[in-house]
């Protein structure tokens, strides 16, 4: 059977045509202002897509993401799309029981969660058996989670 035709990656097109054009601005009260150009967003999404693929996320699989609007959320939505995975949003205000129900019934195999909400997943880890990996971003991981580490840069010889 032939591989389905994939549409062009609109982010890659924008990054190629306007690499220095502003794509993401995040200004949280009391926090650092984050500004990413299309070129930077493309690089961020590609790095994360490669990391998620290395952890085993494949085309057609579901990845639940949980966190407030942030550059991390923009990055994961683009990374999942690049892999052909499905990014499933999860409301960070849900109770552990509600979160477990949504994650389990979405058939997600991976979770991408802001460190602020990672303790929720530590509580329900044993109740979401389909989930192979929990990836924590923007902070430290609780014991029940694993954090994606960026691959070491290869030195040019």
Considering the chains and any ligands shown, give keywords for the structure.
single chain; Rossmann fold; alpha/beta; 6 strands; four-stranded parallel β-sheet; two-stranded antiparallel ribbon; globular; disordered C terminus; 157 residues
CATH topology: Rossmann fold
CATH architecture: 3-Layer(aba) Sandwich
H-E string: HEEHEHEHEHE
Q: Name the overall outline.
A: globular
Q: Taking strands numbered 1, 2, ... along the chain, how are they ordered across the largest sheet?
A: 4-3-5-6
Strand residue percentage: 15-25%
How far is the first residue's CA from the last residue's CA? 42 Å
How many domains? The number is: 1
E-strand count? 6
Into which percent range does the helicity of residues fall? 25-40%
Largest sheet, described in full? 4 strands, parallel
Runs in which pLDDT lies below 50 for 5 or more consecutive residues are 148-157
CATH class: Alpha Beta
The average pLDDT score comes to: 88
Task: Tell me the number of helical segments per DSSP (H or I, 4 or more residues long).
Answer: 5
Whole-angstrom Rg:
16 Å
| Helix-strand makeup class | alpha/beta
Describe, in plain words, how this protein is organized in 3D.
The chain has helices at residues 10-17, 38-54, 71-83, 96-106, 118-124; strands spanning 22-26, 34-37, 62-66, 86-89, 108-114, 133-137. The chain is of the alpha/beta class and 157 residues long. It has one domain (10-137): Rossmann fold (3-Layer(aba) Sandwich). The strands form 2 sheets. A 4-stranded parallel sheet has the order 4-3-5-6, with helices on both faces. Strands 1-2 form a two-stranded antiparallel sheet. Strand 1 (22-26) and strand 2 form a beta hairpin. It is globular and about 45 Å long. The model is unreliable at 148-157 (pLDDT under 50).
């Amino acid at each position: 059977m032939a591989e389905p035709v994939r549409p062009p990656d609109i982010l890659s097109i924008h990054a190629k045509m306007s690499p220095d054009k502003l794509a993401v601005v995040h200004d949280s009260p009391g926090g650092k202002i984050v500004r990413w150009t299309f070129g930077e967003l493309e690089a961020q999404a590609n790095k994360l897509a490669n990391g998620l693929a290395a952890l085993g996320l494949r085309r057609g699989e579901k990845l639940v993401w949980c966190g407030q609007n942030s550059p991390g959320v923009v990055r994961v939505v683009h990374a999942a799309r690049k892999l052909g995975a499905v990014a499933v949003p999860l409301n960070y205000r849900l109770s552990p029981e509600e979160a477990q129900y949504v994650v389990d019934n979405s058939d997600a195999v991976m979770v991408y969660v802001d460190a602020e909400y990672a303790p929720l997943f530590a509580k329900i880890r044993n109740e979401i058996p389909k989930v192979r990996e929990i990836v924590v971003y923007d902070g430290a991981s609780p014991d029940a989670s694993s954090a994606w580490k960026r691959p070491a840069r290869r030195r040019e010889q």
